[in-house]
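new request in #modeling-help
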Amino acid sequence: MTILTDEQKQLNEMAKGFLAGEGTVAKQLRHWRDIGCKDGFGHDLWKQFGELGLAGIAVPEAQGGLGLGAVETALVLEEVGRNLTPSPFLTTAVAAVRALDGSALAERWFPGIAAGDTVAALAVDEGRHHAPAATALAAKRSGNGFTLSGAKQFVVHGASADLILVAARTAGAPGETDGITLFAVEKDAEGLAVDNVALADASKAARLRFDDVQVDADAVIGEVDGGWAPLSRALSAGRAGAAAELVGVAAGAADMTNDYLKQRKQFGRLIGEFQALQHRAAHLFSEIEIARAAAWKAAELLDKGDERAELMVSVAKAKAGRAAKLSAQEGVQMHGGIGMTDEHDIGFYMKREAVLGALFGDERFHANRVAQLSGY
Amino acid sequence: MTAEQDLDSFRAEVRGWLSANCPPEMREPIRSESDVCWGGRNAVFTSPAQKQWLDAMTSRGWTVPDWPKAYGGGGLSPAETKILRQEMAALGCRSPLNSFGISMLGPALLKFGTEEQKLEYLPPIARGEIRWCQGYSEPNAGSDLASLATRAEDRGDHFIVNGQKVWTSYADKADWIFCLVRTSTESKQGGISFVLFDMESSGVSTKPILLISGYSPFCETFFDDVSVPKANVVGEINRGWDVAKYLLGHEREMISGMGLGGERKALGAGVGPIDDPLLRAEIAEFDVDSLAFTAMSEHFIDQLKAGEAHPAMPSMMKYAGTELNKRRHELIMAAGGSDALEWDSERSKGGKAPRDWLRTKANSIEGGTSEIQLNIVAKHILRLPGA
């Protein structure tokens, strides 16, 4: 790919217009934070994602969606990132849809997701760092199905979700990828305790406690003991998507900062005239361009089913995470004192970058994965 | 047949031809400077295979596949050129010819040259018959390139050139030079002309400069009453800066490509487990940057071909690519430990690792320093004030 088709450009323009109009910090992030919304996002906006077809972007056309790929998803997510728009788009429309695609559960959940009615969450991490293979939450056979016991954390939108995809261990030992099974657990399941936690960026993630939660056998996505496959699909899509969203976060912060450099005067000059700042701004531009190319490449390889896709997904997530971190931190620094105030939006970029950078594995996790996939 | 089928059959044809015509020795990775073929009047081929490969590629115009056939090129479309490069990469075929004529002067002549100039100079470039060098930098000019002082006095149908150039890459091996000279002192950038002349002209002399790497790829070049016909001016007299800037964009593209080191794999790939956790982490971090830059390079080339690249993007690519290349060689030195410090032992292949490492330190100086590239990005892309 690397050069967008006309259809992709149109989709990008549509997402740009929609999110720059409806998804702004003032209308969404700041609003929901200030009123103390329990979800951290607006259901009306999610419904609009549905009306525009975006909530069903990855749902196959035969099941009422647009049937588009990771590249198109990335184009939307860059705009989500640029506007810091809180929504279940990444977890639900991207990650969960890829996990469910082709399974018997797709028929049950896709219509609601595509309509922007249903919210889904991915429950993977159990410790403070992303480590999907370390899954220990136990799923024991019981009657017609399984009993789940254990805990999950950093389950984004976990308290708002109608559907939670839970990675559990049906065989093997923590650290092994075999023996993991992916379950579709519905909200209000008996024995499920939900602690809804506000994160630094005002988004909500849940700590979940499973005390003998009973699920039927048909809650299994894919094969028993073979959950690594659908989980990996969800994680790859989620990671590539998060990389694209991080590129948007980086670009949004950089645009805001470059505008400021052209307006703010000190010592009788525009601060953008100072070479010390120009060089840092130019370096940042370079990092963001490279991160975007990596994110697009990862998406392209995922769509092609190319064997290098996993390597590139990790390259993209690590690179975009670092670019966003640099952009947000330089943004706050170059804004000076005003950048430290809650009143100004630049600080929100730093908070969002921190949360999104950690989601589905931080830059260290992914650099390590690059090393592993390269055999060292 | 559809266009796609045409390209598929072109790919098959290219693959077959390369398999039949690229000698096995020319499919080995480049190991040293002598593996590189530069052509020229006094070309020394290090093996019969090197010459055979150049001749074979020249016969199809594939040293410059996308140039028109009338100028010695292959007349290929952008898509066909890409296929040729992909198939060469797949078979590991070396570039048949390294040439400033191809990467720098050629594009400038295609854009600014007269038809006579194109017909005279481009075919010998395509065939590797004339080796070119670039006379840009001068003592005391450095990054402030337009402050050059080499002067060309108007003598009717010719100029008399006097002055000195420095950092002239391979001037001692070149046949001809493309050179910036001052034809007017009225304005800094507006008084420069772009001229071509034979290095064997009376009054031209060169002296190699020994570098920290022990290599001497650069020279000082002196002009003492050199006569240059006016017909050898490319573009308009006093408007040579336009040609120079255009050419610099191509030079930066070429140098930015070096960040890839000709490799698309991770630096740590194939070396097995790395015991030192800090070194492993640094290499992994480098590989993230390097593989991301590889994606950027591909994107950039596609943008160029589609005419969608911002004119200042080569500066960004040059900056990022060369900084990355320096890091690559820092890591190769670190991983090599004391082995990598050996300067001229046989085991170290004549100190390849430390010499290459030292060489890369020039990447962020030559062709416009990293600081100059950042200035260009700040001014022309970010449009920051006063830049």
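bot summary: The longest strand of chain B covers residues 158-169.
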